[in-house]
Amino acid sequence: MPEARVAIDLDVPGPTISRHLYGHFAEHLGRCIYGGFYVGEDSPIPNEGGIRLDVVEALRALNIPNLRWPGGCFADEYHWKDGIGPKSDRPSMVNTHWGNVEENNHFGTHEFMALCELLGAAPYVNGNVGSGTVREMSEWVEYLTRDGDSPMVRQRKANGRDEPWQVPFWGIGNEAWGCGGNLRAEAYADLARQYATYLKDHGDNKLYRIAAGASNDDLAWTEALLKAVSCLGCGRDPKNIYQAISFHYYTVAGSWENKGSATEFSVDDYYRTMSKAQDIERIIRAHSALMDAYDPERKIGLVLDEWGTWWDVEPGTNPGFLYQQNAMRDALVASLHFDVFHRHAERLVMANIAQTVNVLQAMLLTDDEGGLVRTPTYHVFEMNKGHQDATSVPVHVIEPTTYDLDGKAMDLVSASASVKDGRALVSVSNLDPTASLDVVLDLRGGSPSEVTGRLLTASKPQTYNTVADPDAVAPVPLKLEPEPRGLRVTLPPHSFATVSLVL
Predict the structure, then answer these.
(1) Which of 137, 224, 297, 439 is the 20 to 30 Å CA partner of 8?
(2) Has 175 been annotated as catalytic?
(3) Is the pTM of this model over 0.85?
């Protein structure tokens, strides 16, 4: 059996892993909002104000830190004033991006804020730049966050909410290079400066303004946003106009026209997927290096507010609804991403998986009869939640195992670790789809007094959960054996594990 050695420096503190790296994304897309989060007050499915309570309960178990809404591409055609006030008075709209369906606007600003309160999550509101106005977004900030007396405050109070909400995160449009306006980078950079100027702090609500950034490794887009607030090598802090720049990266193993099946794939397809997932590290490094040149003190955060696997939709479903299954392979894509996020936590301050319910790499899949499935990806989030707001520590895979993919050596072991409140959490994945792996955890700078382990795997990487078989992929205890310098664990093929240590 192959063996790998992973050295963990428990006493060498690194950057804090923001809990917001475990963020989520809920767009008006398919059955994410309607039929997912929101079933309406008259639904026989237990709900509070129309919000589905079993979904809330499942997500609270993840310590969900933030939720991005209403898009995505939908954000740049959404006009928030159509989604407030009595539901009977709200005009309907056409969701032109996702299925060309009509929506009744019954899930709007107040419903989203109620959802965030039920989840205990910070709201991340994405504003409309593509078809909206500066005034429209500015008034949305005022409506949500201002106290006292003003036209927007009076309107909010008339709609049943006296006290303002805390809404820290604001996105200045979405994918402005594409569905958000097909803008040139310099043109959008000017708009981002303008919009951000009129997104005001009201009272003690301090805005974290996020400029809509690049697709994948489009460094020219990122540089245009940096040039708009800073200068190369000048040594000055960037202008405090927007506080972060985003980018998007999806793991697409095939082509955009033929992405492949979520559950029917070959070993070669599996390896290509893992290689695409690992490429997120190269992309984060590239954006970070560019940002370090313009912002050496790292005043501006990097935000990956859309990430995850993207497959062909399930047969027989609306292609505009992006409904896909979620297998053990998807869980390993998530575990890989989190290891990378932990290593780059000094610059990467937020990430949002796409999407939370019933769309793309979802945490949960629901049906209209009350069925709810926790996906394999859900379990990675739950097993990893101890990393939230913990201190990252260095991890070195000293004796790696690799696979030759098209002449390139691909690592088959991925790991990261953190410490918090006298405990350490180690995450490790065996990406080999066919062979088990012995892993020696070489624990340096700390002697654990108590250890426990959990394992997530399945009979094959194509395995997924259903209403009929909800625990086909679910965590089980992991056997741990003492070693002179730490612990030994045996990881089955295509598996993810966490080891918790009391220090």
Answers:
(1) 297
(2) yes
(3) yes
